[in-house]
Automatic annotation (TrEMBL):
Highest taxon of the lineage: Bacteria
UniProt protein name: Beta-glucosidase
Cellular component terms per the entry's GO annotation: cytosol
Binding-site positions, substrate: Q17, H116, N160, Y285, W403, E410, W411
EC class of the enzyme, as a word: hydrolase
Family to which this protein belongs: Belongs to the glycosyl hydrolase 1 family.
Alphabetically ordered keywords of this record: Carbohydrate metabolism, Cellulose degradation, Glycosidase, Hydrolase, Polysaccharide degradation
Location of the active site: E161 (proton donor), E356 (nucleophile)
GO BP term, example: cellulose catabolic process
MF annotations from Gene Ontology: beta-glucosidase activity
EC number: 3.2.1.21
Length: 449
């Protein structure tokens, strides 16, 4: 596949999903620690308290990344490890100093996300992302991290997937902090985006550059050609895609009624939110099939994905292979998702990175040091083929990050779902590269050379 020579090949993770050590190094309590402690929230009562023990084993993990041949590693800084209680804890910063130094010594560019859903609990106790003050506290935290790591981090992402925090954390309560507010969760959209804009300014003031975002996006398909289904799909795309992209790239909300639902001096805030980005990151997993609300009730397979009484409902996508997580595998959706940015934003589209793409399969335990995972290889091969088509068609895509570098804690699904290129035996923390690890290593080598 003719990817440009400078194309950035990477792998990704997030702090709460891999680090563990939730009571060490000055780390404070996060909303995910609290959420996991509530009975019934997480599959099998699990938590990220130990996870993949990356906090203690980061040198081993960086060595695996080095041998993998990636040019960048996308990790997240744990906000409650750095500013757990309103004051800066140097021990937390020291850990990321060591991690970044280790990556640089291995020839791997650090790509840092500042918020991957782990809000410090003390901020949530004061209202969390429902309050404007959290956006300003986020900017303060960004300044601290930028001043310490800005001389070495190559890519910055203040936010990861704010749509998930709003929908699952505040609207439906399936993720931390477990609120069930329905449409009353909309202020969290504005405050996250405002926090992002303020953080971009704080990072630049600290001398950092090459700043983007990691936003969840996917193509939205109408369930039929009927006007009702077409309008439903358009409404869904507005809420899930454009509500989180238009303010960043166009400086406005995609619909007047959405702008009216936002708190604060919206017009002035949008000037901050739309602070120009150096690039834009897309996290892609699957398209969504959407129709008008069913008269006979929602499909049980998708019921509960969104608040009730909305003018649309997600439908089951059939006719495609699925991962063991039940997600349909549709590589063409990645090409379409990239294309829809050019269609909507034209020359306002920054350079793009695929900041996440991956799949969960319930891999077998290692036998003689090997974990065969042909479905994961097929997934990435097909998605890279689709991405190559997008680039050949003129899309300015500059990198691809596999989700995930290692198996990890998959939020409410616990440890059953395995996305990693490297198998983790959670009882012993032994790392075993899967066949997909070696496939990706060879693919990168062959593409570069």
């Amino acid at each position: 596949m003719p990817f440009p020579p400078e194309f950035l090949w990477g792998a990704a993770s997030s702090a709460y999903q891999v680090e563990g050590a939730v009571t060490e190094g000055g780390r404070g309590v996060s909303v995910w620690d609290t959420f996991c402690a509530e009975p019934g929230r997480i599959r099998d009562g699990q938590s990220g308290a130990v996870a993949a023990d990356h906090y203690h084993r980061y040198r081993e993990d960086v060595a695996l990344l080095r041998d993998l041949g990636v040019g960048a590693y996308r990790f997240s800084v744990a906000w409650p490890r750095v500013v757990p209680d309103g004051t800066v804890h140097s021990e937390g910063l020291d850990f990321y100093d060591r991690l970044v130094d280790e990556l640089c010594a291995a020839g791997i560019a650090p790509a840092a996300t500042l918020f991957h859903w782990d809000t410090p609990q003390y901020l949530e106790d004061n209202g969390g992302w429902l309050t404007r003050d959290t956006a300003h506290r986020f900017a303060d935290y960004a300044s601290v991290v930028g001043q310490r790591l800005g001389d070495r981090v190559r890519l910055w992402m203040p936010l990861n997937e704010p749509v998930v925090v709003t929908m699952f954390g505040y609207a439906l309560g399936n993720h931390a902090p477990g609120r069930n507010l329905g449409l009353a969760a909309l202020p969290t959209v504005h405050h996250q985006l405002l926090g992002h804009g303020l953080a971009v300014g704080a990072l630049r003031a600290a001398g950092c550059s090459n700043i983007g975002v990691a936003n969840h996006h996917g193509a939205v398909w109408a369930a039929s050609e009927s006007e009702a289904d077409t309008m439903a799909a358009r409404s869904y795309a507005t809420l899930v895609n454009w509500l989180f992209a238009d303010p960043l790239l166009l400086g406005r909300y995609p619909a007047p009624e959405l702008a009216a639902a936002m708190p604060g001096p919206v017009v002035e805030d949008l000037k901050v939110i739309s602070t120009p980005l150096d690039w834009y990151g897309i996290n892609y997993y699957q398209p969504t099939l959407v129709g008008a609300p069913s008269k006979n009730g929602s499909d049980p397979a998708v019921a509960g994905l969104l608040p009730p009484d909305l003018p649309f409902e997600p439908r089951r996508l059939s006719g495609y292979p699925t991962t063991d997580f039940g997600w349909p595998v549709i590589p063409e959706g990645l090409r379409e998702t990239v294309a829809m940015f050019a269609d909507r934003y034209g020359d306002a589209t920054p350079p793009l990175y695929i900041t996440e793409s991956g799949c969960s399969y319930h891999d077998p335990d290692p036998v003689d040091g090997r974990v065969p995972d042909p479905a994961r290889i097929a997934y990435h091969e097909a998605h890279l083929r689709a991405l190559e088509q997008a680039i050949t068609g003129g899309a300015d895509v500059r990198g691809y990050f596999v989700w995930a570098a290692t198996d990890n804690f998959e939020w409410a699904a616990g440890y059953r779902e395995r996305f990693g290129l490297v198998h983790i035996d959670y009882a012993t923390q032994k790392r075993t590269p899967k066949d997909s690890y070696y496939w990706y290593r060879d693919f990168i080598r062959d593409t570069i050379h």
